[in-house]
TrEMBL record:
It is found in: Secreted. Keywords: Carboxypeptidase, Disulfide bond, Glycoprotein, Hydrolase, Protease, Secreted, Signal. One of its GO terms (cellular component) is extracellular region. Its EC number is 3.4.16.-. It is an enzyme of class 3 (hydrolase). Its main location: secreted. Probable carboxypeptidase. Belongs to the peptidase S10 family. This is Carboxypeptidase. It comes from the Eukaryota. One of its GO terms (biological process) is proteolysis. The keyword Secreted applies. GO terms for molecular function: serine-type carboxypeptidase activity.
Length: 510
């Protein structure tokens, strides 16, 4: 089995370097990029320069509350906080703001501590509890907190101002730095580095049990799991783990109502095959280039199938093989921003998220958050590489059982994202076999209207919805913040297909 995976890899390398004299087209570099190289490229493209590749620390490292955590495992240690450079709060107290940060000693770990932010809803304490997970894998959820859907945005001179479209206007909002070693999460033991979705979902389930123990007032609230990009892997796994825990009565019943994935990677076999079709449709590659790159697609599909069968070294081979497709397209595209093909990258820089990194490493901010002198790891190259065996796994397989049990799923995607494009997402959603497959396929596509304008195209049946978002790239809440907030409100209130949320329905939901 494994020798076959290496034969696939060898064949892909030969295909990649194939360049007949009759054409000047170069598919890709002679060798596929290693995961560590890809991870560094991802991080530099966001103008981030984390000092460490992962937060694995010495056992005696100074982190506030560490001794308390170790003495009372698995106690969750949470504190109210206020950013020292937060403006626009009109003198509101910490209690009135309802902002908390904390650490949770993961119960089934050697010494792993998950860091999180918790923001109370600005609307009502009865609003749903919504957890957000960022992708990478290995990027901190603070990317979304400060640049997408958090309570505030970074202004001039590292000040923080209210975000009028923050998701805390419609939910009690949680951001988790995970897997272990990401952001401010850390361990003193390398054995706590996660390599698959079982480790990730077990950690998050343990965290949620501790969180709801700490906040019994939220236990009866509806609960939703959201996120984007590589969280297309995390989210279905965590949803399935929570649902399993509820069925088995393992602990506190978590009132799971649904999960939403934005521009995610969920079913690689279908999504990698869609790369060339999307690139051709959007004018990134020519028909001739399309045909040449597609030579690799069957090899990629075979490699992914083998990964799903044995799930070991063949998964690494599948990653290397299949990413030749993506690399070939981006090499042809030049300096295009593959998160938003309407934009160009200047050198390696595609976005500038450096203010977040600077802000969170300020001494006063770290003191306010209770992380001591721990350095913030914006994106972890080590976590990225550690999850390599997980990358090509199909996370769609566990979703039908959730849908059939009435758990809602929303897949949304900005139309100008290449890396996790809407076409690939639409295809796996339509191909998924569940009790409503035919009805979903036959359902009409309707406009998703926000403030009198069409913000996207929506298709729904029963618990399943797919939304293609107009004028947005990979990070929908950043590109279309009003539409993203309205999407969350309507989806959690069961009115996603309606043109507006009526005041009466809002009152009744509260």
């Amino acid at each position: 089995m494994e020798s076959f995976s290496f034969r696939l890899l060898l064949l892909s390398l030969l295909l990649a370097s194939f360049s007949p004299a009759a054409t000047t087209l170069r598919l890709t570099d002679p060798q596929p990029q290693l995961p560590s190289t890809q991870a560094r490229k991802l991080i530099r493209g966001l103008n981030l320069f984390p000092k460490h590749s992962i937060n694995i620390i010495d056992a005696d490292h100074d982190v506030t509350n560490r001794s308390s955590i170790l003495l009372h495992r698995p106690k969750l240690v949470e504190k109210p906080f206020r950013f020292p450079n937060f403006i626009g709060s009109d003198g509101a107290s910490v209690e009135e703001l309802g902002h908390h940060a904390g650490y949770y000693q993961i119960q089934h770990s050697y010494d792993a501590q998950l860091f999180y932010f918790y923001f109370k809803s600005r609307n009502s304490e009865n609003d749903p509890v919504v957890i957000w997970l960022s992708g990478g894998p290995g990027c901190s959820s603070e990317l979304a907190l400060f640049y997408e859907n958090g309570p505030f945005k970074i202004g001039k001179n590292l000040t923080l101002v209210w975000n009028e479209y923050g998701w805390d206007q419609a939910s009690n909002l949680l951001y988790i730095d995970q897997p272990t070693g990401t952001g401010f999460s850390y361990s003193s033991d390398k054995r706590d580095i996660r390599h698959d979705e079982k480790g990730v979902s077990d950690d998050l389930y343990d965290f949620l049990q501790a969180f709801f123990t700490e906040h019994p007032e939220l236990v009866k609230n509806d609960f939703y799991i959201t996120g984007e990009s590589y969280a297309g892997h995390y989210i279905p796994a965590v949803a399935a783990r929570v649902h399993q825990g509820n069925k088995n009565k393992e602990g506190i019943h978590i009132n799971l109502k649904g999960f939403a994935i934005g521009n995610g990677l969920t079913d690689p076999a279908i999504q990698y095959k869609a790369y060339t079709d999307y690139a051709l449709d959007m004018g990134i590659i020519t028909q001739a280039q399309y045909k040449r790159i597609n030579i690799i697609v069957p090899v990629c599909e075979a490699a992914i199938k083998l990964c799903g069968t044995d799930g070991t070294v063949s998964c690494s081979a599948a990653y290397l093989v299949c990413n030749i497709i993506f690399s070939a397209i981006t090499n042809i595209a030049g300096n295009i921003n593959y998160y938003d093909i309407r934009k160009e990258c200047v050198g390696p820089l595609c976005y500038d998220f450096s203010d977040m990194e600077t802000l969170l490493n300020e001494k006063s901010v770290r003191q306010a958050l209770g992380v001591g002198n721990l350095e913030f790891v914006s994106c972890s190259t080590t976590v990225y590489s550690a999850m390599l065996m997980d990358w090509m796994k199909d996370l769609e397989v566990g979703i039908p059982a959730l849908l059939d049990d009435g758990i809602k799923m929303l897949i949304y995607a900005g139309e100008y994202d290449l890396i996790c494009n809407w076409l690939g997402n639409s295809r796996w959603v339509h191909a998924m076999e569940w009790s409503g497959t035919k009805e979903f396929g036959a359902s009409a596509e309707v406009p998703f209207e926000v403030s009198g304008s069409e913000a996207g195209l929506l298709k729904s049946y029963g618990p399943l919805s797919f939304l293609k978002v107009h004028d947005a790239g990979h990070m929908v809440p950043m590109d279309q913040p009003e539409a993203a907030l309205e999407m969350l409100k309507r989806w959690t209130q069961g009115s996603l297909s309606e043109t507006a949320v009526e005041p009466k329905s809002l009152v009744s939901s509260i």
